[in-house]
Amino acid sequence: MAGEMSRVVLSQVMEKVRISKLLAERGICSRREADTYIERGWVKVDGVVATLGERALPSQSLTLDRAVSTQQTALVTILVHKPMGYVSGQAEDGYTPAVALIQEQNRAQNDRSPISFNRNHLRGLAVSGRLDIDSTGLLVLTQDGRVARQLIGEHSEVEKEYLVRVQGRLAPGSLELLNEGLSLDGKKLKRAQVRWQNEDQLQFILREGKKRQIRRMCELVGLKVVGLKRVRIGQISLGDLPVGQWRYLRPNEKF
User: Which of 55, 106, 129, 250 has its CA 20 to 30 A from that of 221?
Assistant: First the structure.
């Protein structure tokens, strides 16, 4: 029996995985980007050029052509101060997507990035951490799968900070519940950091981002959200970025 169990474990360890998945798991790029690199012949497995859809063992050596580094350097990440009334992703129900704000005339005057605006920077931008249509604040759009994975990947631990204006009164113990003890969609939420900023505003720091999470958390303890603004993601703060304007993430900035 022990021998059989050992064989099962060994077979699981030795199971081959798609190369694109391995590259994504190692934080090198997204799966979609990996497929592009493989198609272009930029990925090798144990020194042999990989083919699209090929699988490899996690223990095998994966190497990338220098062209990958060059291409990744050219990828941009854009920070937007999203106003109310804009949707984060694709246009819906007649509402305008936040990406429509990324135009030369809306670039913040204090953007110190050396990058010159190029329409190609709008291609393949992915929203990394949505904001509701009736929420404002820091929104990240990126061409870089590594950034997207860091911010919204399954195992992301990057903090997101929000200032939340509320109406209602908290019952004794409810603030503790907001910090730890609530569940949504049948799953317990990760521990949060919630405290009063003033008499009608709470500060929320979360390490996850379920749909309308803060509004639903507040509803569970008898509060109504009347204003929500995201002011920080990881080490990047909204700062003095004006509403409706945007800037590039600078090379020396990291989430």
Answer: 129
Region label for 182, one of left (φ > 0), alpha (ψ between -120 and 50) or beta (otherwise)? beta
What is the DSSP code (8-state) at residue 170? P
Catalytic residue among 46, 93, 111, 132: 132
Please check the confidence at residue 163 and state whether its pLDDT lies above 90.
Answer: yes
- What structural domains and CATH numbers belong to the chain? 2-72 (3.10.290.10), 75-154+236-248 (3.30.70.580), 160-233 (3.30.70.1560)
Strands 224-233 and 183-184: unpaired
- Residue 132 bears catalytic tag: yes
Looking at residue 105, the DSSP 8-state letter turns out to be G
Contact 176, 224 (CB under 8 A): no
Burial of 48 (0-12, 13-18, 19+ CB in 10 A): exposed
